[in-house]
Design goal:
The chain is an alpha/beta fold and 244 residues long. It is 25% helix and 25% strand. It has helices spanning 40-46, 64-67, 70-79, 91-106, 114-117, 169-178, 200-204, 208-211; strands at residues 4-7, 23-27, 30-34, 56-58, 86-90, 119-123, 129-132, 135-141, 151-155, 159-161, 183-187, 214-217, 234-235, 241-243. The chain binds ligand CC7 and zinc ion (2 copies). The ligand Nc1ccn([C@@H]2O[C@@H]3COP(=O)(O)O[C@H]3[C@H]2O)c(=O)n1 is lined by residues 12-14, 63, 65, 145, 164, 195-196. Residues 19-218 form the Metallo-beta-lactamase domain.
Length: 244
């Protein structure tokens, strides 16, 4: 089953050389935008991708580099295309996404709640959900910021796409050895203490066979100086199209 991934950006929250870590995941008949950060509208414009070609958006957690572009997207879909974008979101994130992030900008006549701006599809953690005939996504809650929910994705029961997350070696080991995970798209923090992210040093402690499945994303502007220093892992490049 062919899945294609094109990252709109592969940068961390403060990167300036790279757009926000948001990706277009495509089957032959469906395009899912994974996260829609502050830079997503500009990245889509530069790639020549019209918003109406996006069939749905899925958000992993509530940080600007993952949801900061939703206001523009919703307004342009409404006023330019006359459409309500489909939004997949974890049950636990729907209310805070509206109350804490989108309400201020989107509220106006005709828009009083998240469902007025988006065709909201709630996802439950641990329950694989079919988004289209060839695309199934399961949310796996992974730790990021204490007290804030964040969800990584298990795609088609074989590809792990990490949200921003603290290193979870047991999860990665279990996915590879017990759930036949064949590809891991993982966030990485190259320098400084991880705290709320996974450091390169932590990922380098994984067995080589797991490392060889990992592509690194959500990195800082210093990425180029780490080429050749990532063990069996490689860097995902923004705008390149990968067959997964
Ligand atoms: N305890 C924290 C919380 C946040 N941060 C930084 O803020 C960014 C928010 O977006 P992010 O992509 O999750 O990356 C976070 C950290 O860089 C951080 O460095 N330490
Ligand atoms: Zn982030
Ligand atoms: Zn985050």
């Amino acid at each position: 089953m062919t899945l294609r991934l094109q990252m709109l950006g592969t940068g961390g929250a403060f990167a300036k050389k790279y757009f926000n870590n948001n990706g277009l995941l495509c089957t032959e008949d469906f395009t899912l935008l994974i996260d829609c950060g502050i830079t997503a509208p500009l990245a889509l414009h530069q790639l020549g991708k019209p918003l109406e070609k996006i069939d749905a958006i899925l958000v992993t957690h509530i940080h600007g580099d993952h949801v900061g572009g939703l206001e523009e997207l919703a307004f342009r879909m409404k006023f330019v295309y006359g459409k309500k974008p489909v939004l997949y979101v974890a049950e636990s994130l729907a209310e805070p996404l509206w109350e804490h992030t989108l309400k201020g900008g989107l509220t106006q006549e005709g828009i009083a709640c998240l469902e007025d701006a988006f065709d909201v599809k709630l996802l439950r953690e641990g329950e694989p959900t079919q988004l289209s005939p060839k695309l199934t996504v399961e949310l796996i809650r992974t730790p990021h910021i204490p007290g804030k929910a964040s969800y990584s994705l298990y795609i088609n029961n074989e590809i792990f796409y990490s949200a921003d997350m603290i290193f979870q070696p047991e999860l990665l080991t279990k996915l590879v050895y017990e759930r036949n995970c064949r590809k891991i798209l993982h966030e990485v923090q190259l320098t400084g203490p991880g705290q709320v992210h996974t450091t390169l040093q932590e990922l380098l402690s994984l067995p080589f066979d797991i490392q060889s499945k990992i592509s690194l994303m959500h990195y800082g502007d210093e990425m180029e100086s780490f080429i050749g220093a990532t063990g069996e892992m490689s860097f995902l490049r923004q705008h390149e199209v990968y067959t997964l």
